[in-house]
Every structure is written in structure tokens, then in C-alpha cells.
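Sample intake sheet
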Amino acid sequence: MTSSQGEMRELYPVTGEAYRYRIEDRECHCTFNLEFEAGTGFKPGPTLSIESRETGEGLCRTESGQSYAFAWAWVGLELHVWLDGALFVFQRAVTRRRSNVRATEAPRDVVSPMPGVVLEVLVRKGDRVEVNQTVVVIESMKMELVITPSRSGVVRNVEVHSGQLVERGMRLLEIAPEGDA
């Protein structure tokens, strides 16, 4: 049995949410314990029982007994998880030595989490947007992904248009804090 633990921050669909994890791995089966950041510290979260079918695929069971098919892939320091048809992207939290500021703070850019084709751009330059508001819809791997900003503000630039091919990490929009636009 091997164990590992660490901290991750969610990049997509919600940016900045922090999680602590502990994994106990036993040949084709592991237990995944999560803790959520809550104001002054971390609070206990769910425990997931994961059975690995193949590399990158598995079946996840919650404490309540519900089962979900999922797939995952590591892309550098990012963990891409497809759970029951939804995409989640996490990044290992890295602390900068001098300032102790998290390297995964909410950026101004709204970027594509994976390569695809832009189906719709739902905002224009100057529009006010809120966290988790759908701003762009992308088709990737025969799935529609709704893209949301990680911060509220005003759209400073729209970098894409319907029908455009985009690469993973490509800037779709730039969001400025209200008053800076």
C-alpha cells in the first residue's frame, strides 16, 4: 500500500477552490479523502472509493454508495477529471518561496481548458460578467463545454469568435476588475 497527500486548487469550472487530499493506494483500488478550504482552515469532505479499470479510467463510489464512471489524465501539474460527463481541472498548489502567495490565484484571462471549436461567444467587450456565468461554449471531443470566468468584472477583450479552433490554454477573454476596464 502506498500513500500520498497534498493540496490542489481547482482551475475549472471554479477557479481558486482549495482541496487537501490523501490517497491510500492498494492494487487497482484506492481511497481518496478530501478536505475543503473553509475560511480559517480545512474541513472534512467526502471519502471516495475508486476502482481502477485501466490506466486513466475507473469507477468512483461515494460514501452513500452512488457509483460514477470517470476518466483522468495528468497534463503537467494539472489533473483533468471527467466525472459523469463533466470536466474538472485541478492544479497542484505551488507556493512561491518569497511572497508565500499561491501560484494559482484567479487570473484575468479566461482560457480554454482543452482544444476544440468555439460554438458560441455569449459576451462582448464592455459587458459585466459574474463568477460562473457562461461566457463561451466550446465543443471538444464531441462534448459541449461551458466556459465561465473565475472572477467578476468587465470584459476587456474578446479574443475568439464562433467557429474558431482553439488550443488548450488559449486566451478566450480578458476580464478586468470593475473600474479598470
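Comment: The chain has two domains: 2-92, 109-176. The CA atoms of residues 10 and 17 lie 5 Å apart.
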